[in-house]
Specification:
Number of helices: 11
Order of helices and strands: HHEEEEEEEEHEEHHHHHHHH
Structural class: alpha+beta
Strand content: 5-15%
Helix content: 40-55%
Largest sheet: 4 strands, antiparallel
Radius of gyration: 31 Å
Number of domains: 2
Shape: elongated
Length: about 400
């Protein structure tokens, strides 16, 4: 009996010594990064992916099958790892790609430390796709999320049997976009209920394409009436929502990045109403500009019709564009967006609207083509050209 117990104790002692030796060599104990100055929060050694030509998709890295692969990829969760650092190293010279774009060369044997907060501000995405290209094999590449050690902090020993508990992934933009849709639905329901005739008139494609506008209509002869003001305000809400939607797809609407730089829900709501106010002032200001130019070109009789057609076409187009983009976004979450997807519909719409306005005004006023074309260029074409110049 003592012999059996002695064997058990001896086996337990060997197991404990083996685990102790492994723990001493583990990066969780010694630290990672330059001079081991970072506590490892996550090691991506078991999370690397490789592209499989047969499946046409990324699959988990398997050492027995992918030992010759030179490009290893991984998804980096930025939103759940704020205030941490991304640690990258390759034993031989390699290259770093982020979202399929080459970012920098990786010198052999040197650590690259990237702030996850900075990556989050630059890419404005909850997750990025990172690829390390270099020598084949898993041993050549090291990728960690780490936290810097403090000089005054006592050593903390992390064992490999700890559970990793992470918060659920969520996007502040997704929350706002959902709330924004409910808000737009409520405003449209309000206008449909209390201003039913005007709603049917504004959202009538048949009325838009009609060349005979009723100048004495209650919507045309009073362009800044309370009814029209409410519909202009609703259009402003739609435009502001579209701007924030485009921003959520990592397209910088404003080059300075001072606006829409923070993704907290309360600030996004505030910026939504700020953008709505700017859009509303712009639309009302356009009517004032039409009045001034109409007086110069002696076209006072068509100013109200022109402004009504502008509002009517904009409401139809931007409402349909919003619905289309939302449907595409929620059904193709992994699809990358390009500028042409967003700019092409706008160019087509403004070109078609310019042609429609020309035909409508030409049928109403016996005016020389040169005057009419100059008038439309100033109020419609030149703002479009300037906008595209800054967009591109």
């Amino acid at each position: 009996m003592p012999t059996v117990l002695s064997r058990y104790w001896f086996g337990f002692l060997l197991l404990w010594l083996g685990l102790s030796a492994f723990a001493q060599d583990s990066p969780r104990t010694n630290g990672v990064g330059p001079a081991g100055r970072y506590y490892p929060v996550r090691d991506f050694r078991e999370d690397f992916l490789v592209y499989d030509d047969a499946a046409r998709a990324y699959i988990p890295y398997i050492a027995e099958q992918h030992a010759d692969e030179t490009a290893l990829s991984a998804y980096i969760d930025l939103e759940s790892n704020r205030h941490y650092q991304l640690l990258i190293s390759t034993r031989q010279s390699g290259y770093l790609f982020i979202n399929a774009a080459l970012r920098r060369k990786l010198p052999a044997g040197q650590w690259l430390v990237l702030s996850i907060d900075s990556l989050y501000r630059v890419y404005r995405q909850p997750e990025i796709f990172l690829t390390l290209y270099g020598a084949p094999g898993l041993e050549d590449k090291r990728l960690f999320i780490g936290y810097p050690k403090s000089a005054t902090q006592k050593p903390v020993v992390l064992r490999d049997d700890n559970l990793s508990v992470r918060p659920r992934k969520f996007s502040v933009y997704d929350n706002f976009l959902g709330l924004g849709l409910l808000f737009l639905l409520a405003t449209h329901a309000f206008l449909f209920t209390f201003y039913h005739r005007a709603f049917l008139r504004f959202y009538s494609l048949r009325d838009l394409l009609s060349l005979r506008a009723e100048e004495d209509s209650f919507l045309i002869n009073r362009p800044l009436s309370s009814t029209n003001i409410l519909f202009i305000l609703n259009l402003s809400f739609i435009v502001a929502y579209l701007i924030l939607f485009v921003q959520s797809r990592n397209f910088d609407v404003f080059a300075s990045r001072r606006l829409l730089a923070d993704q907290r829900l309360s600030l996004l709501i505030g910026e939504f109403f700020l953008l709505s106010g700017i859009s509303f002032i712009t639309l009302v200001g356009k009517y004032v500009a039409l009045e001034i130019l109409g007086g110069l070109y002696k076209l006072q009789g068509i100013i109200n019709v022109h402004f009504f057609k502008v509002l009517q076409s904009s409401m139809l187009f931007f409402t349909l564009l919003t619905l289309a983009l939302i449907i595409i976004a929620y059904n193709t979450a992994g699809t990358s967006w390009s500028e042409s997807v967003l700019l092409l519909p706008l160019v087509v719409f403004y070109t078609a609207r310019l042609a429609l306005l020309y035909v409508v005004i030409r049928s109403m006023e016996p005016i020389k083509n040169l005057y009419l074309f100059s008038y439309l260029c100033i109020v419609e074409l030149i703002p479009l050209i300037v906008g595209l110049r800054f967009a591109l």
